[in-house]
Write a structure and sequence with these properties.
MetI-like fold
């Protein structure tokens, strides 16, 4: 109980070191979510809208990549960014940028697959109307993405939840450097091994609070989408 009280004191007292770690975690994860959205949402909608050779293979692969092991992604990014790797000259290894790259690769399949699942029913619903109006491919893509915005937002939240709680990939490519690449999950692992349970518990409280908030938003969006469909 003393440890819990001290942990809560760090959170309530706005400890600078604690909130620096939280801030870095949020910046890395939110940046990865943004990049994943820009890439994954259009690709997911395209897989839902258009038929082309090899589409089924891409769908199966994208769904399978949702279960990518984080340590494997971390290893692959490490090999790419290391000095002997093809991108080693960029000097990105053990920086927040490397962590963003790893998290983007991890959550991109989630956003892609969930966006496709959200757009697919709308494609069937709007097929005759868009064919009659001779809608251009890009307008069709934008329209269906907009109408599937609740599902796309849910995909973003799911991706953010995966990113903020990830530890394997970021510790490999980030190196867990104090004040540079140390995020919440890697700090919890390190401080627990050192016996500094106050800081680990404080970060755990924050991480659980974020997870609850994200899941609450996903639930609320699901309810909104259900009411919208019932209204229609």
């Amino acid at each position: 109980m003393d440890t819990l009280r001290e942990a809560w004191g760090l959170v309530a007292g706005f400890d600078p070191a604690l909130y620096a770690i939280i801030g870095l975690s949020l910046r890395v994860s939110l940046t990865a979510v943004l990049f994943s959205l820009l890439i994954g949402a259009p690709l997911g909608a395209a897989l839902a809208i258009w038929d082309f050779p090899g589409k089924r293979v891409l769908v199966v692969v994208s769904n399978a990549l949702m279960a990518l092991p984080p340590v494997v992604v971390g290893l692959a990014v490490y090999l790419l960014l290391s000095r002997a790797g093809p991108l080693g000259s960029l000097g990105l290894l053990f920086t927040p940028k490397a962590m963003v790259i790893a998290q983007t690769i991890l959550i991109l399949p989630i956003i892609l697959a969930l966006t496709r699942a959200a757009v697919l029913p709308l494609r069937r619903e709007y097929a005759d109307l868009m064919a009659a109006l001779d809608v251009s491919p890009m307008l069709k893509l934008r329209t269906l993405l907009w109408d599937a915005r609740i599902g796309v937002t849910t995909a973003l939240l799911a991706g953010f939840g995966r990113a903020i709680a990830e530890v394997g990939a970021v510790i490999i490519v980030g190196g867990n450097i104090n004040g540079v690449t140390r995020v919440m999950t890697t700090t919890i692992a390190l401080e627990t091994s050192k016996g500094n349970l106050e800081l680990a518990l404080a970060l755990g409280v924050v991480l659980i609070s974020i997870a609850i908030a994200v899941n609450a938003l996903i639930y609320a969006l699901g309810q909104i989408g259900q009411r919208y469909q019932e209204g229609v």
